[in-house]
Design goal:
Elements (H helix, E strand, L loop, with lengths): L3 H24 L3 E5 L19 H7 L8 E4 L6 E5 L21 E5 L11 E4 L7 H7 L2 E2 L2 H12 L3 H26 L4 H12 L11 E4 L21 E6 L2 E2 L2 E2 L2 E6 L5 H19 L7 H18 L7 H6 L2 H5 L46 E4 L2 E3 L2 H10 L5 H5 L6 E3 L2 E5 L4 E3 L3
Parallel strand pairs: 1-5, 3-4, 5-6
Antiparallel strand pairs: 1-2, 2-3, 7-8, 8-11, 9-10, 12-15, 13-14, 15-16
Helix pairs in contact: 1-4, 1-5, 5-6, 7-8
């Protein structure tokens, strides 16, 4: 019986075979070896950190934790998979899933770490520098050729129907965790308890999430990449920011929600509603041909309107943008490309592979592309009350309503983030 996801995966693999053949020929290579990578033990220790396979390896096999393995692409031939499957009673042996996609590969299960034997002019990509000098020499391939890497990165910028289906499922699974996190917050849980509720509802181990979940209560919501989980509940609950995702067949979701606590000022609750509205407005603007940098500028103009309408800034919206006030309240970019990596490849290049860096006034922006059908991006406007960023405004005598802002400091900040597909006619919001 046909399975729609497996049918899409079959088409995806055929698309990769055709695209890789064209790109290898253009770059003058006869074959390509893609190394999954491997984890090394911590210094002076005997266990290793959590591992994630190389993105271009996952593009083919959809398995995010495969180590010391290779995909070999030779145009005109079936792709080969050399899968490291050691005989090991200490750990569960690597096994292939009972799924139709495995029939698309010539598969060799290797009890020892394999090394492909390449012929002709060959390229090898992945963490090749981690191999020994002897292994690199025996491989006989040009490591990480820049032109080919750029071409393969660009290939990942536009998602196939299979990839979109995986991203949609990753979003669905993550949202189950977000609902559980909100419920734990209502129940006055500590940050660690909220994290555990998220993991349980989304059915993930902490080592398998696509990035370290951000679970920030109160002022911690204003630490953009907050990295801890307090063990005790705070005496007052102003806010909760949850930035957390899921990985499905290698593909990542990246969703952020901000919740209002019982001790928050009424202004904060209204600001959260306003930021949801801003996120929705920016999502509705997505369509082929729209420039992401222009959309980022729109975020700052609308954020200035919010600051003025809530009496947080006592001058015009235009001056809030011109004087850098909005950048102090939102120091990060509007979002980024999303796929096999949370911050996916080729976001700061043109389709031809030329550099297209973020502008000097927005150095944290991770995406400067013009939208095309098949791109998947995050839209994540933010509004934060971060003392170290607001202090220079006070020193400059900028027209901030400081009593009103100071009343919001304990809330930390707001970020609302959805994952959005660019379609032929507009957009599809993948975040339910």
């Amino acid at each position: 019986m046909s399975n729609p996801l497996f049918d899409l995966q079959h088409d995806h693999l055929q698309h990769l075979q055709n695209a890789y053949a064209e790109k290898l020929a253009r770059e003058g290579f006869d074959s390509l070896a893609i190394y999954s990578g491997h984890a090394d033990a911590f210094f002076a220790d005997d266990h290793a950190p959590a591992f994630q396979s190389y993105g271009h390896f996952m593009h083919w096999v959809g398995m995010a934790d495969i180590q010391r393995s290779w995909v070999i692409i030779t145009p005109g031939q079936k792709p080969a998979l050399l899968l490291h499957a050691p005989n090991d009673f200490w750990h569960l042996t690597t096994v292939l899933p009972d799924e139709p996609w495995v029939e698309a590969f010539d598969i060799t299960l290797c009890p020892e770490p394999p090394l492909p034997q390449m012929t002709g002019r060959a390229a090898a990509i992945g963490d090749i520098e981690r191999l020994s000098d002897e292994q690199r020499q025996a491989l006989g391939a040009e490591a990480m050729p820049e032109g080919l890497i750029k071409a393969l990165d660009e290939l990942r910028m536009t998602k196939t129907d299979y990839e979109v289906a995986c991203l949609r499922e990753a979003n669905r699974l993550a949202m189950a965790g977000h609902h559980a996190a909100k419920a734990a917050f209502i129940g006055a849980s500590a940050e660690l308890d909220i994290q555990l509720a998220y993991l349980g509802a989304s059915r993930q181990r902490e080592s398998k999430v696509p990035y370290q979940n951000i679970i920030g209560l109160n002022g911690h919501a204003g630490v953009l990449h907050y990295q801890h989980y307090d063990l005790t509940s705070p005496p007052q609950r102003h806010s909760l920011l949850v930035d957390a995702g899921h990985r499905f067949r290698g593909y990542c979701s990246d969703i952020t929600r901000t919740h209002v606590g019982p001790d928050a000022p009424e202004t904060f609750a209204a600001l959260v509603v306003a930021m949801h509205g801003l996120k929705d407005e920016l999502v509705r603007a997505i369509a082929p041909g729209v420039d992401y940098l222009a959309l980022h500028d729109t975020m700052h103009r609308r954020l200035a309107d919010i600051l003025v309408s809530f009496d947080l800034y006592l001058d015009s919206a235009e001056s809030a943008v011109e004087q850098g006030v909005t950048r102090a309240f939102c120091p990060h970019g509007l979002g980024h490309s999303l796929g096999l990596q949370v911050h996916d490849v080729a976001g700061l290049r043109t389709p031809e592979g030329e550099p297209k860096p973020a502008p000097a006034q927005h150095p944290a922006l991770r995406l400067t592309r013009t939208f095309a059908p098949g791109m998947v991006v995050t839209i994540e406007p933010g509004l934060y009350f971060i003392p170290m960023l607001l202090a220079p405004l006070k020193e400059r005598g900028v027209a901030i309503n400081w009593p009103r802002v100071d009343a919001l400091i304990n809330c930390g900040g707001i970020r609302i983030e959805d994952n959005v597909l660019v379609t032929e006619s507009g957009f599809e919001n993948l975040t339910p």
